[in-house]
Design brief:
Blueprint lengths: L1 H15 L22 H6 L3 E2 L5 H7 L13 E7 L7 E5 L7 H7 L7 H9 L5 E9 L4 E5 L8 H14 L4 E3 L4 H9 L7 H5 L4 E5 L1 E10 L12 E5 L11 E4 L8 H9 L3 E4 L2 H4 L7 E7 L2 E6 L2 H15 L20 E2 L8 H17 L9 E4 L1 H10 L2 H9 L8 H17 L4 H15 L4 E7 L16 E4 L2 H13 L4 H10 L8 E7 L5 E6 L11 E8 L13 E6 L5 E5 L5 E5 L5 E5 L11 H15 L5 E8 L2 E9 L7
Parallel strand pairs: 5-6, 8-9, 9-10, 10-11
Antiparallel strand pairs: 1-3, 2-3, 2-4, 4-5, 7-11, 8-12, 12-13, 14-15, 15-18, 16-17, 16-18, 19-20, 19-25, 20-21, 21-22, 23-24, 25-26
Helix pairs in contact: 14-15, 15-17
C-alpha cells in the first residue's frame, strides 16, 4: 500500500513535470541532494540482503532524495563479489545506512585495501567487485541498473551483473548506460541499454532557469505574437522565437537548449524559464490574469497573485523603467580616442574600452595561441567610428524626437514602429567616403577580400553581468565592398533593435551609454558548429563538466531555439560522454558563393560530434576558461574538418535574482 501511494503521487507529479536533465541518480559525493526518507529506520536494520524478493524488500533498503517530487528516484546500491565461491555473490546494500559502496565494503570487512586498489573496481576488467545502483525509473515505470559514468565496464562484467540481478531481484530490469562508452559495451553484451537520450525524450518538464516571478500570464500562439509582450507579462510560448522583449517569466511548449537566445536572455534578466509540455492547455484558465510562477529544478507551480504581490511587482518594474544610469558591469564606458582600425592580432582584453568585449575577448584568445585551436582573422571598427557617424547624422536629435512621440513611453507597439523607422533611416544615412574606403582596403589587404561575417561588439554585450545574447545583428558572408558598407550600418543600426532597446531598459542601461563597435571576421564554411559552457548548467556544483550544443553546418541556428541541437555533457573527471539528445535538423546552413547562407539537406538524428572530438572541445574550453581567470565561459566554436575554430568567448552569466 505504501508503495502504491508513493507511485500514485509520483505519477501525478510527472503529469506536471519530469526530472530536470540529465536523468541521473543523485550522488552522495555531490551537494544539492535532498534528505533521504526513512533513513533512521533503515540505519537500524541489517547491512544488506542477498535477494530482494518483493517491493517491501526494495523499499526497506532504498534511499530516496526529494521524495514526492518529480525528481524522486528510489535507489539501492549493490555490489557483486566475483571472488566468492562457488559463484559470484550479490549484496543489495542498506543504502541510507551506507551512503557509498566503499563504506559498505570497509565496514563489512569485504575490502581493507588502499584507495588505489578500490578504484581498480571501476576500471579493471579483472576487478573483484562490480559496484552499481538499482533504481526505479518513474518515466519508464520500470527498474534499471546503472554504474558510475566513468566505470570502464566490459561485456563480460555486464553479463555477470545481469545474471546476478535477474536471480536476486523480483522484477524485470533494464541496463541504463551513463556514457556513450557504456552504451557500446551494453550493446556488445546484447542488453539493449536505456540511454539518457531515451529518458530525456519522455520529459514533460525541463527547468532552464529557476526562480519566482509575479506577472500577468499571456499565452502567445506564435513567434510573431510574442513580440507584442510587455515587461509585466509571464509568457507561455507555443513556439520558441529567435528573440524576445523583456518579460517577467517564460514557459515554452517546445524544448530548447540552455544556450538558446531566449534562455540566455531569461538568465540575464533573472526570470524563471522552463519547458512545460502542453503548457497552454494546462494554464489556459490563467490567461490574462496576474499570477505567481515558481520554477524549481523538480517542477513548477502557478497560482493567483495577491494584490500585495501585484503592487510590489508593478512598483519594481516602474523603478527599472525610470533608471537613468547603467549599473556597474552592465555596460562599458566607450573610449572614443581610438579611431584606427584594430587587427584582431593586436587586440587584448584592454581593448574592450574601444572595441567592445566580444572583439577584445576574441583577440585575447587569439593571442593565447592555445593548443588545438585557431581563431579566424579579422579586424575591429572601433566605437569612435560609430560615434562620429551618429553625430554627423544627428542621431541625438532624432532619438529625442522619437521619445516625444505620443505613446512612445507607454505603448510597446509605438516603440517598435518608431525604432524600426529609426533603423531604416540609419541604414540609409551617408557614410564618410574615406572611412568606407579604409574598411575596403583593410578587408582586401588583411583578409584577402574573402567573405566575412560582420558582427556586433557593443558596449553592452558579452559582459559578466549582461550577456546581450541575440540582441544585435550579425550579417553573414559579406562578399563585396558595397555590401560591407551596408552591413556595417546594419550592425550600427541594431543598437535600436526593439529587443535590444527593451532589454537595456529592463536592465537599467541608459541609451546614452551604448556604443557599437563592429568585428569584421573571415567567414568559415564549417562542417559543424555550436556553443559550449565550461561547467554543467543543470547542476552548478559539477564544475568538472562541460556542456556542448552542436549542429551540422554554420552555427547561427544553434542559439535560435527554433530547432533543438545535439546536446552533450562531458566530465573531465570521469572522461564520460553523455548524449542528452541528437540533433533533429534535416537541413544545415552553408556559405552561399553569391553571399549570405543557404540551406543544404542533412540527416536528422545522426551524431554531429564523434567521441574523439568531444574531449578535444572540452579541453579547449577549459584552456579558454583559464585564460580568463577561471571564470566559466560561454564559447562559440566551429569545426572545419578536424580543425577547431573559436568564434566567441564570453562569461557564462549566472542568473541574478530579482
Amino acid at each position: 500500500m505504501r508503495r502504491a501511494l508513493w507511485l500514485a503521487s509520483a505519477l501525478l507529479a510527472i503529469a506536471l513535470g519530469s526530472q530536470a536533465q540529465p536523468v541521473r541518480k543523485p550522488s552522495a559525493y555531490e551537494s544539492g541532494a535532498g534528505s533521504p526518507v526513512h533513513a533512521a529506520a533503515n540505519r537500524e536494520s541489517g547491512s544488506d540482503l542477498q535477494v530482494l524478493a518483493s517491493q517491501a524488500d526494495f523499499d526497506r533498503l532504498a534511499r530516496v532524495y526529494d521524495a514526492g517530487s518529480p525528481g524522486a528516484m528510489p535507489h539501492v546500491l549493490f555490489a557483486i563479489d566475483r571472488q566468492a565461491r562457488p559463484a559470484p555473490r550479490l549484496y543489495f546494500i542498506n543504502t541510507p545506512r551506507f551512503q557509498l559502496h566503499e563504506r559498505f565494503l570497509r565496514d563489512t570487512g569485504l575490502f581493507t585495501g588502499e584507495r588505489q586498489a578500490l578504484n581498480r573496481n571501476y576500471r579493471a576488467p579483472d576487478r573483484r567487485f562490480i559496484l552499481g545502483t538499482l533504481s526505479w525509473q518513474p518515466a519508464l515505470k520500470a527498474y534499471s541498473y546503472e554504474f558510475w559514468e566513468g566505470d570502464q565496464l566490459t561485456p563480460a562484467l555486464l553479463r555477470t551483473t545481469a545474471q546476478s540481478l535477474q536471480a536476486g531481484f523480483f522484477a524485470p530490469l533494464r541496463f541504463k548506460a551513463n556514457s556513450t562508452a557504456q552504451q557500446a559495451v551494453g550493446e556488445a553484451a546484447g542488453l539493449n541499454p536505456i540511454t539518457q537520450e531515451a529518458l530525456l525524450g519522455t520529459q514533460t518538464f525541463i527547468a532552464l532557469n529557476t526562480g519566482t516571478a509575479v506577472g500577468r500570464l499571456r499565452i502567445a500562439a506564435s513567434a510573431e505574437s510574442a513580440q507584442q509582450l510587455a515587461p509585466q507579462d509571464i509568457v507561455v510560448l507555443r513556439e520558441v522565437p529567435i528573440s524576445l522583449p523583456p518579460v517577467s517569466g517564460v514557459l515554452t511548449e517546445r524544448p530548447s537548449t540552455v544556450l538558446s537566445h531566449v534562455n540566455l536572455l531569461a538568465r540575464g534578466w533573472g526570470i524563471p524559464n522552463a519547458f512545460v509540455q502542453n503548457a497552454a492547455q494546462q494554464l489556459a484558465r490563467w490567461d490574462g490574469q496576474w499570477v505567481q510562477l515558481e520554477v524549481r529544478a523538480t517542477g513548477y507551480a502557478v497560482r493567483a497573485a495577491t494584490d500585495a504581490e501585484r503592487q510590489a511587482a508593478q512598483q519594481a518594474l516602474q523603478r527599472r523603467a525610470t533608471a537613468r544610469h547603467s549599473k556597474q558591469g552592465l555596460s562599458i564606458a566607450p573610449d572614443l580616442r581610438h579611431s584606427a582600425l584594430q587587427p584582431l592580432s593586436a587586440l587584448r582584453q584592454s581593448g574592450r574600452s574601444y572595441c567592445g568585449a566580444k572583439a577584445a575577448n576574441l583577440g585575447e584568445v587569439n593571442a593565447a595561441r592555445l593548443v588545438d585551436v585557431q581563431v579566424p582573422d579579422g579586424f575591429c571598427i572601433p566605437f569612435a567610428a560609430y560615434a562620429d557617424f551618429m553625430r554627423q547624422n544627428g542621431l541625438a536629435e532624432r532619438v529625442a524626437r522619437m521619445r516625444q512621440q505620443p505613446g512612445f513611453a507607454s505603448d510597446a507597439g509605438v516603440r517598435r514602429q518608431a525604432l524600426a523607422a529609426l533603423r531604416e533611416a540609419i541604414s540609409s544615412w551617408p557614410l564618410d567616403a574615406a572611412q568606407a574606403q579604409a574598411w575596403q582596403q583593410r578587408w582586401q589587404s588583411q583578409l584577402g577580400g574573402q567573405g566575412v561575417f560582420v558582427r556586433s561588439s557593443s558596449s553592452s554585450e558579452d559582459l559578466a553581468g549582461f550577456s546581450g545574447a541575440g540582441l544585435y545583428t550579425t550579417v553573414p558572408n559579406v562578399r563585396s565592398a558595397e555590401a560591407l558598407a551596408t552591413a556595417v550600418r546594419q550592425v550600427w543600426a541594431s543598437v535600436y533593435n526593439f529587443e535590444a532597446w527593451e532589454a537595456r531598459a529592463a536592465a537599467g542601461i541608459a541609451e546614452s551609454d551604448v556604443a557599437m563597435a563592429v568585428l569584421v571576421q573571415t567567414a568559415v564554411d564549417s562542417s559543424a558548429s555550436g556553443v559550449m559552457i565550461t561547467r554543467d548548467p543543470f547542476d552548478t556544483t559539477r564544475r568538472h563538466a562541460t556542456y556542448i550544443a552542436a549542429k551540422r553546418g554554420i552555427g547561427i541556428r544553434v542559439v535560435e531555439g527554433q530547432r533543438v541541437a545535439e546536446q552533450i555533457l562531458y566530465s573531465s573527471r570521469s572522461k564520460a560522454i553523455q548524449v542528452l539528445n541528437r540533433s533533429a535538423d534535416d537541413v544545415a546552413l552553408q556559405l552561399d558563393p553569391a553571399g549570405g547562407v543557404r540551406e543544404v539537406p542533412t540527416t536528422a538524428g545522426r551524431a554531429v560530434l564523434t567521441d574523439a572530438l568531444v574531449p578535444r572541445l572540452a579541453a579547449v574550453g577549459l584552456a579558454v576558461q583559464r585564460r580568463f581567470g577561471g571564470q566559466a565561459q560561454d564559447i562559440e566554436w566551429a569545426l572545419q574538418g578536424e580543425k577547431i575554430l573559436l568564434l566567441q568567448a564570453r562569461p557564462f552569466v549566472d542568473a541574478p535574482r530579482r
